[in-house]
Design goal:
91 residues, alpha+beta, YefM-like fold, 3-stranded mixed sheet, 3 strands, elongated
Length: 91
């Protein structure tokens, strides 16, 4: 059901009772501003949303740092040799 914001505020108990039947949409000046859904549906949405998150490269490095710290592993990087050509510096 669609509710105007003022009406939803005045009839909040009715709005909450109605979520058992379907999500309740709340509008302000014909613009959707809120949707009230039953808790089970919201929990399902949160689980889906968590699965959809794409981890960034920064997240992957943070996880790698955490794993290294847990295992007391030190990743050693070799020093750069100066005899390697640098193509961008030659122009």
């Amino acid at each position: 059901m669609k509710w105007k914001l003022d009406e939803a505020q005045q009839k909040l108990p009715e709005v909450i009772d109605a979520i058992a039947l379907e999500p309740q949409l709340i509008f302000r000046q014909d613009k959707l501003v809120a949707a009230i859904v039953e808790p089970k549906l919201f929990q399902e949405f949160l689980a889906w949303h968590q699965q959809q998150k794409v981890s960034s490269l920064a997240d992957a490095f943070a996880e790698l740092r955490q794993l290294c710290a847990e295992d007391n592993y030190i990743l050693e990087t070799p020093a750069r040799s100066s005899d390697r050509p640098i193509p961008f510096a030659e122009e």
